Input
Amino acid sequence: MMKKPNKYFAYAKLNLQLRVIGLARDGFHLLDMVNVLISLHDDVTIDIRPERRNEIFLSSSRNFFTHPQKNLLYKAWDWYTKKTGIPISAKVHLYKRIPIGSGMGGGSSDAATLLRILNNLFQGMTEKELIQESVEIGSDVPYFLIGGLCRVTGKGENIQTLPENEELSHLHGVVCFPRKNVSTTKVYALYDENNKSFSQGLSDDFALFPTYNDLTPSASEIQPSISQCLSFVNSTKPAYYGMSGSGSACFGLYTCTKSSKNAMDFLLRKGYRVWLVETNQKRNYP
Output
């Protein structure tokens, strides 16, 4: 049991590939994606209290405001305690860096970080159960429990870890946020409206590059700042570039640190929020 609060990093992800391949019976879109963790992260400080009451106290940095019961950290704690029947008294503080509505999975990563720590401490579920069933909290949560470089299919519950990609390991990233988020629900609705057929899934011998995202046209139509951001990123001559998730964060991958730093300086001058990032292809569970 923890005797003092401990701080953990909840890392963001980028989608190197995202294909919409169908609809599930419940109306959720079926995806075929390649995700990779990046060094941009939120900080999650967790204090497990000795009281055997089932309660959670949440606080956050000033740049993050949400009703506690709509917070994925709350949902993760509530889900875990109900699934396992274990009463847990916890105090959790979130310092937010990953922009909300950026397509980088910040909320899901926060939730997965808390779940991983709770399960390490209380062992209420097997690793397999936790990964497969946590999709009930959010479609990205199973991936963040595993992390690294993965192929993710279905609604997010099917995770295949991929061997380290040498080309990716030598690329240096820049993430650019247009300061405007976009509704995932609206992006998928417009995608359905604009597309009469779904994409084919990735082949078993697929390549990571070039990057591709089926949702980019729809997200850019809803939020034109995404299209402008992609144009500016492309003008910095990255080896690869694209949009993550349903937007609105865009990224460029460069063959040397000098190019990535030059790109960051240029994009900062354009008024964007920008981060230099490195990719992490190694899984992070446990």
Remarks:
- The chain has two domains: 6-161, 166-280.
- The longest helix spans residues 106-122.
